[in-house]
Amino acid sequence: MKVCIVIPVYKEIPDTYEQIGLRQCAKVLSNYPVTLVCPPLLDTEHYRKIFGNRLQTITFPKKYFKNLQSYNRLLTSKSFYQAFAAYDYILVHHTDAYVFRDELAFWCDKAYDYIGAPIYEYDGTISPQKYIGVGNGGFSLHRVSSALKVLSSWKIVYPLSELRKWYFKYNWKGRIRYLPYFLSRFTTYGRWAHSGLNHLRVNEDIFWGVYVPKVFQWYRVAPFDEAYKFSMEYNCEKLFELNNHQLPFGCHQWYKGEFLQFWGNHIE
Hints:
This protein is an alpha/beta fold.
C-alpha cells in the first residue's frame, strides 16, 4: 500500500501553532513520504527544516492559492490527483491539523474511497447541531484511483433541484449578479464530474463527502461512527464521549479559538 502525506501551503513561514502540528506529523508519521503542495517560487526552507530530505514539493498555478474558493477548485481538479497517481492513498494534512498516533496503514486497509471528520453546518459555535455528512477535508484520506475515476466521468454531479435551491436563496440583486455563474451550471458542461466547471460554491469536502457518493454508488465514504474515530473538528466533546474518551487518529483546527480549550488538554 503506497500512501503519501500531502500538505497544502501558501505561505513561506508557518506560525507557532502550525509548527507544533507539523513537527508532530514529521515525528509520528516518519515512515511515509511527505509532499508539499504550493504555488511556484514559494520558499519552502522552513518546511524542509521540519521534514528533512524526505520532503518533496509539487507546485500548482498561483491561482489555486488565492482564497478558499480557488483551493476548492484545486482539490476537485483532475490534475491534482494525477500528480499523485503513483500512490494508492493520500493523507491531506492541513497546517492546522494534528495527528496523535500512526494509524495511517490501519485506515488505508479499511479501503474507503474517502474519510474525514464528521461535517456540521456552521452556526457560529464549535458545537453546531445540523449534521451534514463525512468528512472534513483538513485531515482527510483519499483513494487516488477513485478520485481520478470520478473526475474522468461524464456523469452529472449536481441535480437541477440542487442548483435551483442554491440560486433562489439569493435576493433579486444576488440573482442578477450570479446569473452568468448559475447559467453555466444549468448547462450539462457545468454539471459533469470531469468538467473544469464542476463546482458549486461549496467546499471540496462537501463535493467528495456528500455529492459524489450520491451519484457514484460504488464510491465508499466512511460512516459516521468510523469518521469520528479517524478525525474530529466540530462537536469535539460529544464525539470524544461517543469514542469512549479515546483520541482519534487526528484532528483539524485544533488551536483556533475555542477549539484550543478542548484540545489543549490533550496536546502538550
